[in-house]
């Protein structure tokens, strides 16, 4: 099975900072990569699918890139409401594995 | 409005069984694949399993951690998906979410239920 890793596991940044989270698949998954945001006590929310397509209603400060095995989620200007844990996920075929998550908070 | 509502969670002893339900509305349930994802307290998301639509032979797939113990089924006449959990272990304690995805092409998890809590403890 394909394994998903994320780095860093956590980060602390200031409001307005550019934040980058990396996700790596152990084998190529083309662009079948999604990013989710989960705020404390809430249901996960789809942010980006097909590696770089922004889900409807998601602020444009979020962006995704990558293909194959290496992917990136970028928040161009961190806002207080972005405090959350972010997960990547492969969805090309079963098992639909999630990464371990990256916790983002405000410095 | 597209909606998924899970039910059936609760407290069960190790070795016991529990059946979760996921009632769907607001979309064509019969044409959708249905997934289950769980999350233990303070931990990450774990995909549990999936059932595809009738057009895709109701094919199922499971995570290695639950294969042989959990079974996903669906009743398209009731717009409901199920997760039958047998031989439960303490490590199965988690919030269980159901999710719908499109078919036949691979689809990200855009619609989630609110989750139902399962506690396995003596």
TrEMBL record, chain A:
PROSITE patterns for the chain: IG_LIKE
The protein, known as: IG c499_light_IGKV1-27_IGKJ3
Predominant subcellular localization, coarse grouping: membrane
InterPro entries the UniProt entry points to: Ig-like_dom, Ig-like_dom_sf, Ig-like_fold, Ig_sub, Ig_V-set, IgV_Light_Chain
Keywords tagged on the record: Adaptive immunity, Cell membrane, Immunity, Immunoglobulin, Immunoglobulin domain, Membrane, Secreted
Transmembrane segments: none
Cellular location(s): Cell membrane; Secreted
Matches recorded under SMART domains: IG (SM00409), IGv (SM00406)
GO terms of biological process kind: adaptive immune response
Domain Ig-like: 2-89
Domain of life: Eukaryota
Protein's UniProt keywords contain Lipid biosynthesis: no
GO cellular component, one term: immunoglobulin complex
């Amino acid at each position: 099975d394909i394994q998903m890793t994320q780095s860093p596991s956590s980060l602390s940044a200031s409001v307005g900072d550019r934040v980058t989270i990396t996700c790596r698949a152990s084998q190529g998954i083309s662009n079948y990569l999604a990013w989710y945001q989960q705020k404390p006590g809430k249901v996960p929310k789809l942010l980006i699918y097909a590696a770089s397509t922004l889900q409807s209603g998601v602020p444009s400060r979020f962006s995704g890139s990558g293909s194959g095995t290496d992917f990136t989620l970028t928040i161009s200007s961190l806002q207080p409401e972005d405090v959350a844990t972010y997960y990547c996920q492969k969805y090309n075929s079963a098992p639909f594995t999630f990464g371990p998550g990256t916790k983002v908070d405000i410095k | 409005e597209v909606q998924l509502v899970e039910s059936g969670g609760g407290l069960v002893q190790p070795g016991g069984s529990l059946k979760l339900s996921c009632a769907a509305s607001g979309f064509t349930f019969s044409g959708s694949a249905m997934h289950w994802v769980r999350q233990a307290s303070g931990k990450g998301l774990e995909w549990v399993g999936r059932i595809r639509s009738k057009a895709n032979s109701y094919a199922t797939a499971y995570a290695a951690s639950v294969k042989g113990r959990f079974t996903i089924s669906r009743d398209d006449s009731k717009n409901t998906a199920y997760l039958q959990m047998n031989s439960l272990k303490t490590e199965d304690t988690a919030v269980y979410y159901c999710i719908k995805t499109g078919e036949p092409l691979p689809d990200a998890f855009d619609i989630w239920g609110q989750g139902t809590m399962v506690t396995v403890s003596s």
